[in-house]
Design brief:
Number of helices: 9
CATH architecture of the largest domain: 3-Layer(aba) Sandwich
Number of domains: 2
Mean pLDDT: 93
Largest sheet: 7 strands, parallel
Oligomer: single chain
Bound molecules: flavin-adenine dinucleotide
Radius of gyration: 22 Å
Low-confidence stretches: none
Order of helices and strands: EEEHEHEHEHEEEEEEEHEHEHEHEH
Distance between the termini: 69 Å
Strand content: 25-35%
Structural class: alpha/beta
Strand order of the largest sheet: 7-11-6-1-4-5-12
Length: 327
């Protein structure tokens, strides 16, 4: 049976979510791999700019459910519309970006349509044994390869940064309407607030020292500050450091933080989860300090130092100071 791939996009203020642009690429590649067609699905109200943007991709169609009841995302309304559309049109795969909003309802949707669920996919291959998905496990230290033996449709979320939005194939797609009668909101959205105000512009920094959970204790931040001062660097951080309140939110680097491309990036006690990598993999030179030689950050580092950061960072700071004093 040829594949019929649906890419269910997320949008806000007339713009596609970055992860949805990546999901379009995943959907196009999936259609090519399994031999089939890819269609984008848009739910909302006043979504013309988003639909317009999608019609310029190589897609079979852009399916649009437009209703006032879809003006804000609610799981009930989204699942109602998508489940009815799936019953009518029988897609084989539903592809989503692995965003907070999508994760909120994907599992319920898979259950509602009697399908299967594969979350946080970072790749797939079509071989003799059928379609094999790849997804990280154990905090990204290992990758599992799996084949779905459950029923279609397969509901899939694509990990942030696993596919590059730049690889989208341009073309043209025709708009088609989806029935939105089943859009019944089950939440009342009281308001939407921006979480981060970007006070520190890490994108302009030439050198970034990024600190991860491996620091262990916020009281030890002094060694990071000393190294950053010696190098003339800005301090960035992984998300757990921010979530723990060790540094302000505007220092976060990664899929839900800032994307930086400094000349030099020092990752200190950062494991290298894909959500972090997507925000810094464009750096010129990457130096990683980690006590675990198997940490994924070493896979993209130009220089790796395996050891305890509490010993290495002060030694590095002293060496930088000495080198500067001597020059
Ligand atoms: C939707 C979503 C969005 C996300 N967005 C982001 C994001 O924007 N940015 C982000 O960073 N993460 C993000 N994450 C979280 C991400 O998945 C990882 O959990 C996170 O990046 C891990 O942070 P870490 O490397 O600091 O911590 P850990 O994964 O806990 O790694 C700590 C590392 O420190 C090392 N270490 C420990 N002690 C020492 C020592 N004494 N010396 C040297 N090394 C030591 C360990 O070996 C380990 O590799 C997101 C997750 C989701 C689900």
């Amino acid at each position: 049976m040829p594949g019929k791939i649906w890419i269910v996009v997320q949008h806000r203020d007339g713009k596609l979510h970055r992860m949805s642009r990546e999901a379009v690429v995943a959907g196009q590649k999936l259609a090519a791999a399994v031999g089939g067609t890819a269609q984008a699905v848009v739910l909302g109200h006043g979504v013309e700019p988003v639909v317009e943007a999608l019609t310029h991709y190589e897609l079979d169609a852009v399916l649009v459910a437009e209703a006032e009841a879809l003006v804000d995302y609610t799981p009930g309304a989204y699942i109602g519309v998508l489940a009815a559309a799936v019953a009518e049109r029988s897609p084989t795969h539903l592809v989503f970006g692995h965003s907070y909003q999508n994760v909120d309802y994907m599992a319920r949707l898979a259950q509602a349509v009697g399908g299967s669920l594969v979350s946080e996919v970072v790749g797939f291959e079509q071989g003799d044994e059928g379609l094999v998905w790849r997804r990280p496990i154990f905090g990204g230290k290992l990758q599992s390869r799996l084949r779905v033996s459950g029923p279609a449709p397969v509901v899939v979320s694509v990990q942030s940064g696993a596919f590059s939005a730049d690889e989208a194939v341009a073309g043209s797609a025709e708009r088609q309407s989806l029935d939105s009668a089943a859009a019944v909101p089950d939440r009342e959205i009281l308001g939407v607030e921006e979480v981060s105000g970007e006070h520190v512009d890490l994108t302009a920094a030439e050198i970034v020292v990024a600190v991860g959970r491996g620091l262990g204790d916020p009281q030890k931040m002094g060694i990071i500050e000393d190294l950053a001062a010696a190098l003339g660097a800005e301090i960035g951080a992984s998300r757990p450091v921010i979530d723990s309140g060790w540094l302000p939110r505007d220092r976060q680097i990664g899929s839900s933080g800032q994307t930086v491309a400094p000349k030099l990036y020092l990752a200190v006690g950062v494991s290298g989860a894909i959500q972090h990598l997507v925000g810094m993999k464009g750096a010129g030179t990457i130096v990683a300090i980690n006590k675990d030689a198997g940490a994924p950050i070493f896979a993209i580092a130009d220089y790796g130092i395996v050891g305890d950061l509490h010993e290495i960072v002060p030694a590095l700071t002293a060496a930088v100071r000495e080198a500067k004093a001597g020059s």
